[in-house]
Automatic annotation (TrEMBL):
Residues 62-162 form the RlpA-like protein double-psi beta-barrel domain. It comes from the Bacteria. This is RlpA-like protein double-psi beta-barrel domain-containing protein. Gene3D superfamilies: RlpA-like domain. InterPro entries: RlpA-like_DPBB (IPR009009), RlpA-like_sf (IPR036908).
């Protein structure tokens, strides 16, 4: 008899373990879904194009855009530190504005709150955080980091994107990324 009771107890424990594992799997799936929704929102910017254009402050600036990445070999860049004090990160949606345009973007200086801009070219739009400035080549108004440049030029073969429109955005609660 004791064997029968022991077997039933073992079967109950096995059942409890299965319920626990199933519950853990469901919780894991819910967390994964929540994370993927958050990532998808940040990838798409979470805002409609018309609302963003309405939030633009100041005049639109038109010129060419190029890419900078101080970690690429052969680049003559200012190093991995940006004017805002952040380190350059090729995976974020950031850009450096031409030094002479610095004041249109709140000064872009060490420790200051970041400013954002809407960048448009070739039918695509993206919100970037302006975290750096630089003495760009003539005709260029903005240097995009690698991720942002890949949005406009996936192969990075163009080097320069002509006819880019940059609009400063008011406020500081923007989610950088593509706008659709």
């Amino acid at each position: 008899m004791s064997c029968g009771i022991r077997n039933r107890t073992i079967e109950k424990i096995k059942g409890d373990i299965m319920v626990f594992r199933s519950s853990a799997a469901i919780c894991g799936a819910v967390v994964a879904l929540a994370v993927s929704v958050t990532v998808a929102r940040s990838e798409t910017g979470g805002a409609h194009s018309s609302a963003i254009v309405n939030a633009a402050s100041g005049d639109a600036i038109v010129g060419a855009a190029s890419m900078y990445n101080p970690f690429k070999p052969g680049k003559e860049e200012g190093g991995p530190s940006t004017a805002s004090g952040e380190r350059y990160d090729p995976s974020l949606w950031t850009a450096a504005i031409k030094t002479s345009l610095r004041q249109k973007f709140g000064g872009v200086q060490f420790g200051a709150r970041p400013k954002y801009a809407l960048v448009e070219a070739a039918g695509k739009k993206v919100i970037v955080k302006i975290n750096d400035v630089g003495p760009l080549r003539p005709g260029r108004i903005i240097d995009l980091n690698e991720r942002t440049m890949r949005h406009f030029d996936p192969s990075l073969e163009l080097g320069v994107i002509p006819d880019v429109t940059v609009r400063p955005l008011s406020g500081d609660d923007w989610i950088p990324g593509p706008v659709g």
